[in-house]
Amino acid sequence: MMRSLYSGVAGLKTHQTKMDVIGNNIANVNTTAFKSSSIVFSELMSQTTQRASGANATTGTGGVNARQIGLGVKSGAININIEGQGSAQSTGNPFDIMITGDNFFVVNNGSANLFTRDGSFYVDGAGNLAMTSTGYNVMGWGVDEETGAIKQDSVAALRIMSAANMTYPPEATSKAYMAGILDKNDTDVTSANGKVVNLNFFDNLGYQYTARITFKQSNNSNEYSMEFTKLLDSKGNEVPITEEQKKALFGGTDLRSQLKDTAVTLDSATYEWDASGKVLKTKGSGDTVADLSAIFNADGTLQDTDPAKPGSGAEGLAALAKAYGYEGAVDEFLNLMITTNTRDTNGNITGSAQTSMKDVLLKSIGGTSSALEGLADLGESFTADGRFFQGNTIAFDENNGPLLSVNGNTTNFTVALNLSALGGNFSDIELDLTDLSMYDNKGTSTMTATSGDANGVGAGRRLGDMIGVSIQNNGMIYASYDNGMTRLLGQIATANFANASGLEKQGDNLYAATLNSGEFDGIGVDVTANGGYMSTGQLEMSNVDLSAEFTEMITTQRGFQANSRIITVSDTLLEELTNLKR
After folding, report:
1. Bigger pLDDT: 374 vs 433
2. 96, 150, 260, 284 - which has most CB atoms within 10 Å?
3. What residues does 480 pair with on adjacent strands?
4. Which of 230-239, 348-357, 486-495 is least confident?
5. Residue 403, beta-bridge partner list
6. Considering only CA atoms, which of 542, 548, 553 is closest in space to residue 19?
7. Under DSSP, is residue 28 helix (H, G, I), strand (E, B) or coil?
8. DSSP string covering 376-421
9. Residues 305 and 378 placed together within one structural domain of the fold
């Protein structure tokens, strides 16, 4: 009689345990990445009152089965549906990550590695990626400094906001290219100042500069000079360049380009030379326009403009160039190539020589016009045979249009911009001219200069500040910077277990490895190795099925009620038994 009582009690206890499991599942219906549990029952034990016997061939009797009375029920196992994928919940937070697949995030509490499917992370004050609920560090792999690739060794805390990662170092421009059309009928190309093309580039410290490169037409319709004319800083201020630096900067040697024969004519209706041949005056008023002795120093450097000396310094030089038709083109005027007569001490012509207009002016100032004719001696009109310049000569195929040669070379269309000659933080730039062409474009040239090659390599950059962090589906973490660069910061590692159901719950959505789950090797695996992936801006929801839980609750309630009836009926029978003595 007592056996049924204990069976009923065992049934009540076991169903209560099942109800505890169901209650825990329902309580965690909204817990991030919660994995539901289920319980299975097993028979407790049986009392054998008679063992089984076999058939007896001698007596002809058959075998008898054992007689066993069950003594109740017990919890057979509590299983976790740990491989059941929860639904995705969008959060929009880039540090919320959901794993699709069987893997687990690896986190560390300061002394041991634990595992979780809860991907609600944030960046703490030390710059480490951590769990929002516990602050435990998310573990992963760092970047090999030599190769820049992920180094998959023992997992470590992912410090993605370190001081070194907050900026991206600058880089000097090392390559550039020009492309577009040079139209020979473009009035800019045929003018004294030429067609200007700007090239923006960076030095080693990330400061931006602009190089002004000028194209000017030569005596041949398909040949042009390519010259470095000015260097500007990021504020538009001109960077001083000496004559020696300029010679080494673009081309390296003195080159000549023959201009179309051009008559250089003094505006005699407005200007005239005085008797000395050194002072240019305004006709009629007699005001000094340019005084050669007050423009250049004896060493060829330009004097400062002196308000007390009319026609001095840069103002006098500009006025002189204007008088000969080169208004606003002083450098072009000074580089004119002039054929002059040489004379002996008696003034007899002994020969001729080619020299620059600047040399003519200096000879005039020095009073040695007996050896070399001065500017005034050349007369009001003379022919410029060409011009001197430092730079490159480029030629186009006049019949078909593409680039034909650069400095006479028909196979190599690159030139060197030797910025290192300026010293400081400048680096040389290799400038590719291959994509230049000469076609009719209705008088408009479209030439542009771009830093970097056609693939953007060697473009240089300024210092970049971090503006964002993104996590790819394989767990790789990249930082983006406002200079257009990206940097790999690390990769989130994951753990995979042969028997994930064997993991032991530790609370806070965490699990610990056990002997039956398999050990964690301390390195981990790439989440994509077995077909899984990570999704950012999403969290995994609980995989509790409420409809199934409520159904289980009903069956549990009925089972509990039935077991309670066993105890009630058994108690009634015992009561009847005790009443037999009355």
Report:
1. 433
2. 96
3. 468, 486
4. 348-357
5. 396
6. 553
7. coil
8. GGG-SEEEE-EEEEEEEEEEE-TTT-BEEEETTBSS--EEEE-GGG
9. yes
Q: What is the CATH number of the domain that holds 408?
A: 2.60.98.20
pLDDT value at 254 more than 80 = no
Domain-terminating residue out of 356, 384, 412: 384
* 215 closest CA partner among 198, 194, 199, 230: 194
Q: For residues 199 and 176, is the Cβ–Cβ distance under 8 A?
A: yes
Q: How far is CA 451 from the centre of its chain?
A: 16
492: burial class by Cβ within 10 Å (0-12, 13-18, 19+)? buried
What residue type is assigned to position 327 of the chain? E
Structural domain including 365 reads 262-384
* The two structure tokens encoding residue 522: 């301390």
Specify if 456 maps to a domain.
no
Asked whether residue 242 falls in the same domain as residue 334, the answer is no
Q: For residue 458, is it within any domain? A: no
Q: Are residues 291 and 353 in the same domain?
A: yes
Specify the pLDDT at position 251: 64
pLDDT at 522 over 90: yes
Overall domain count for the chain: 4
Of 18-32, 274-288, 459-473, 530-544, the poorest mean pLDDT is in: 274-288
**pLDDT, position 377:** 67
User: Do 273 and 340 have their domain in common?
Assistant: yes
| Tens digits of residue pLDDT in 117-164 | 999 999 999 999 999 999 999 999 999 988 889 999 999 999 999 888
The CB density around residue 82, as the number of other CB atoms within 10 Å, is 21
Residues 233 and 209: beta-carbon distance below 8 Å: yes
In whole angstroms, what separates CA 67 from the centre of its chain? 80
Q: What is the mean pLDDT of residues 202-207?
A: 94
Tell me how far apart the alpha carbons of residues 332 and 492 are, in angstroms, rounded to a whole number.
Answer: 63
d(CA 338, CA 357): 6
The per-residue pLDDT for range 6-42, each reduced to its tens digit, is 888 888 999 999 999 999 999 999 999 999 999 999 9
Q: Which of 202-216, 280-294, 340-354 has the lowest mean pLDDT?
A: 340-354
> Is residue 374 situated within a structural domain?
yes
Please give the backbone phi and psi of residue 80, each rounded to the nearest 5 degrees, phi first: -105, 130
Distance CA 24, CA 22 (A): 5
CB under 8 Å to 125, separation ≥6 — which residues? none
Strand, coil or helix: what is 47?
strand
User: Cβ distance 541 to 91 under 8 Å?
Assistant: no
Q: Are residues 274 and 373 in the same domain?
A: yes
Kind and range of the H or E run holding 24: helix 2-27
Same domain for 268 and 345, yes or no, is yes
Q: How far apart are CA 385 and CA 388, in angstroms?
A: 10
156 by Cβ neighbours in 10 Å (0-12 / 13-18 / 19+) ranks as: middle
pLDDT at 277: 76
pLDDT-derived band at 49 (thresholds 50, 70, 90) equals: confident
Average pLDDT over residues 303-314: 90
Rounded CA separation 536/473 (Å)? 8
Q: Are 73 and 42 in contact (CB under 8 A)?
A: yes
d(CA 478, CA 474): 12
In a domain, 457, yes or no: no
